[in-house]
Amino acid sequence: MASSAEGDVGTVAGLVRVLRSGVEELSLNKLATSLGASEQALRLIISIFLGYPFALFYRHYLFYKDSYLIHLFHTFTGLSIAYFNFGNQLYHSLLCIVLQFLILRLMGRTVTAVLTTFCLQMAYLLAGYYYTATGNYDIKWTMPHCVLTLKLIGLAVDYFDGGKDQNSLSSEQQKYAIRGVPSLLEVAGFSYFYGAFLVGPQFSMNHYMKLVQGQLTDIPGKIPNSTIPALKRLSLGLVYLVGYTLLSPHITEDYLVTEDYENRPFWFRCMYMLVWGKFVLYKYVTCWLVTEGVCILTGLGFNDFEEGKAKWNACANMKVWLFETTPRFTGTIASFNINTNAWVSRYFFKRLKFLGNKELSQGLSLLFLALWHGLHSGYLVCFQMEFLIVIVERQAARLIQESPALSKLASITVLQPFYYLVQQTIHWLFMGYSMTAFCLFTWDKWLKVYKSVYFLGHVFFLSLLFILPYIHKAMVPRKEKLKKME
Description:
By secondary structure, the protein is mostly helical. The chain has helices at residues 2-25, 28-35, 39-61, 67-86, 91-107, 111-132, 142-161, 171-176, 184-192, 205-212, 227-247, 259-263, 266-279, 282-298, 320-325, 329-335, 338-349, 358-373, 377-402, 404-410, 416-440, 443-452, 456-475, 479-485; strands at 305-306, 309-310.
């Protein structure tokens, strides 16, 4: 009997070990390893796709229900996503949301409230970067917190504008100004909305409240007819996801700092940087397209009508066709991370109008963006390069437009494909050059890569910055000469 019992116990123990082994095999860590990704990256992807069942539940059971139920649903789902990804560290976002609500209530619609919000939220984010930063790209609580920081700063500014005379505001400010007083539940629902909590996009409190009130629909009184538009963005996101998954093992930023890369011919180093610079952005494109589909499915993507047809681009963070075809840096900027760029323009760049210098305002805006991304030197170098490249590109475009000889040469139809190829090569080579610092973070890494290509980007664009004005002076006739020629 004893031996029989021992045998049963042994069998049970064996089954437990098998089951435990099976559970381990099915664990996220194992799955992530088999996919060649980190567990945190897999959790992020799962969380982004969870937005679709959440959106379907919202459409069918909550769309025209009481506002407090919708806020509770958004808060609960957002907190669940935060816990799934970051565990108890969700308290960071919760604390900042509660503090922001208290600032609005205690300080009211004042400049003090805006400045306190900006300093507090940015200080908290930067402190988070300081204490959690490593030399690699890590997915941690600061990732969604940078999205939240912009939301809460924008909320404070819109609340401040809501206390002003409407006639003193621009049409854009009137659109976003908050006239009512948000409750804590409203602020929490706005902040934790599952379709944007992790990676964006940015949207205003007023737009969110329209969603809650059932106004964001192309069919008044009914659930929005947005399933097909949402599936289109999801499908496009999946295409980019598959492409990134297939290519990521073969094209990595880690290779840029290897001895093998450094020993390759100069032309190879440049071409690898060009291809990598284009490809590395696909992970961001994937996330934004998938989350945009979630926003469209809920109705948040509704952006009125155009020629009788509903537009669903209110939460678009990507203009994919422009991104893939533009030969200009300004075109890529206009097509990439659209809502964040719009936020910086609306709440930072335009608010610096009192400086009276557009380029200074643009430079300070890019400095803010660099700090918002993190404390690594690579961010500053990347946005410094962006500032330099945009200035030079504008100078070059002005030269070609105003020089009769260059304008005539540029208009030759048969040479257009050649011009396009040259522009695209320059465009993506130096986009990759800029992204090198952005993705390698620390000065020892990006400096090593820049040395290997002889600081080509800095030399090329700094040279053009000083040379182009003289070329412009030589090739563009004065207005008096033009009048005589006419």
